[in-house]
Amino acid sequence: MDTQKEALSRIICTLANKNEELQNFLETVDNTLTGLQEESCKVLSELEAELEQLSSALDWKGAELRGIIKEEKQRKEVELQKQLSEGKFALLSCEELLEFANQTLNISDEEEFLKAAKQIKERVTMAPAFRLTMRPAVSENMAQFTVDFSTERVGLQRLHFLPVPRAPEIDVANCIVCDNTISIAWQPAGDADSDSGRIERYEVEYRKTNRDSSLRAAGEACWEKIHDIRDTKVIISGLKFDSFFIVVRVRAKNKTAAGEFSEPVAIETRGYNFGFDAATAHAELKVTGDTVTWEPQGVKGHDPRLRSKENKNSSRSATPSPNKTTGGRGGRDRFAGESYTVLGDHEMTGGCHYWELRPLADWKSFSVGVAYRLSLGRYDQLGKSAGSWCLHASQWLQSSLAAKHNNRAKALDWPLPHRIGIYCHYDNGELAFIDVDRLQLLHSFKTKFSQPLVPAFTVWCGGITVVTGLQVPSFMGNFLSTNRSLGNLSQ
After folding, report:
1. Angle CA(193)–CA(198)–CA(200) in degrees, nearest 5?
2. How far apart are CA 282 and CA 437, in angstroms?
């Protein structure tokens, strides 16, 4: 019976996963269909606009050519009309002179005849008909305006959509994940073809997901974009690895258009993520996101008298010292009294883990380390039990830095760091504290962990911020290959 139930539970789990996968697939197809409709309307609108501009250009050019022909026709008409007018006038004058000459032949009086003949001779000399060019000023030929748009018609018949580059292919073998940075490389997909045009730039999109799939599940992040990439690789830095994978895709762009995206590739991005477990926090610790601040009950403001006293170099303070402050949890189950402690909410049971701590500007004292969750009592302080290991920093009255475990402390001769890296290799029993800004090993513990560990923090006066979602940084390899003594690390 139990075996059948277990088998049925596995089937139910498989069906539930498949059901979620199908729902995500249907949502993706539906979104794609909507996008297709919108994109089709867009390109049709652009096509109509281009055709309208082409038609307008043809109309404009046609009007220009028609104007040139009409202008030449009008010029020739003016010349010919002028010749017609002059010719008609010359013809009329010639006819009148001819009639006068015929009449003169009939004159019998010699004196009158000679006088008329002389007039005729003078008029012939001045007659317009003898000064008129007997050839048209212009020809009827308009051959210079002959057109042949056969080449242009062939060009119009060849009108087609702009060439679009084919999708590149992501070079998975050369994609590198290191120090919360992803280097993505790809190869153009045969874009030496002249058909798709010279590729000018690329566009990369990426998003976080917890599934090894290109489909976007409900509630997952949208694509983030990187534009105008000129090379066939890009580096995405400053990432927080708070998901199992980052899915990337890339597309090419030529001078005119962008092509299809490549097949998405899921790159594994596992980092150690945790938050503060507010249920474990001391009553005078305030948890806000990745920050913890000490806010003593019954004291207004955030320790203004402490700072004013210190500015006067007074050894007394309105804020009690950590060894004399007492408090209660008000019915809560976790830390109380002088244990101003809060734990992380994610256990470590194996593997390598890394996170960082940065004290706020007004800090006075804090501890950071790891602990067995069940080993700390309500009033226990970090480093004072066999189940907790920590680095303690203080600038209360004087600066000090120490490694603590099982109620023993080792003073460290090193300036107070502004950024502390915590490295824990559970399986090897290693815990190391690094001054990240100076790349220096502060202290390391070597033990054998026997219970689940959680990050642990103590804050008194001021506050701290933690940075999670980090890979184990590459510089840790240099520390792990050397001895555990304090020493400078050259990069």
Report:
1. 145
2. 30
CB–CB of 300/307 below 8 Å?
A: no
Alpha-carbon torsion (436, 439, 445, 447), positive or negative: positive
The rounded distance, in Å, linking the Cα atoms of 289 and 276 is: 8
Half-sphere exposure of 336 (CA within 13 A, CB side): 10
Question: Residues 414, 458: contact at Cβ < 8 Å?
Answer: no
Q: Which two tokens stand for residue 78?
A: 């003016």
pLDDT tens digits for range 198-208: 888 999 999 99
* Sign of the torsion formed by the C-alpha atoms of 61, 65, 66 and 71: positive
Which string of DSSP letters, residue by residue, matches 446-465?
Answer: E----S-EEEEEEEESEEEE
Kindly report the pTM of this predicted structure: 0.66
Task: Show the beta-strand stretches assigned E in 164-279.
Answer: 169-170, 176-178, 181-187, 201-209, 224-229, 233-236, 242-253, 265-270
Per-residue pLDDT reduced to its tens digit, 166-181: 999 999 999 999 999 9
User: CA-CA distance, 443 to 7, in Å (whole number)?
Assistant: 50
Work out the number of other CB atoms within 10 angstroms of the CB of residue 35.
10
- Phi and psi at residue 264, in whole multiples of 5°? -65, 145
| E strand or H helix that includes residue 262 | none
> Are 433 and 393 spatial neighbours (Cβ–Cβ below 8 Å)?
no
Query: Angle formed by the axes of helices 110-126 and 2-104, to 10°?
Result: 160
Cβ-Cβ contacts under 8 Å for 6 (sequence gap 6 or more): none
Q: How far is CA 108 from CA 114, 116, 450, in A?
A: 10, 12, 162
| H or E, element range at 425 | strand 420-425
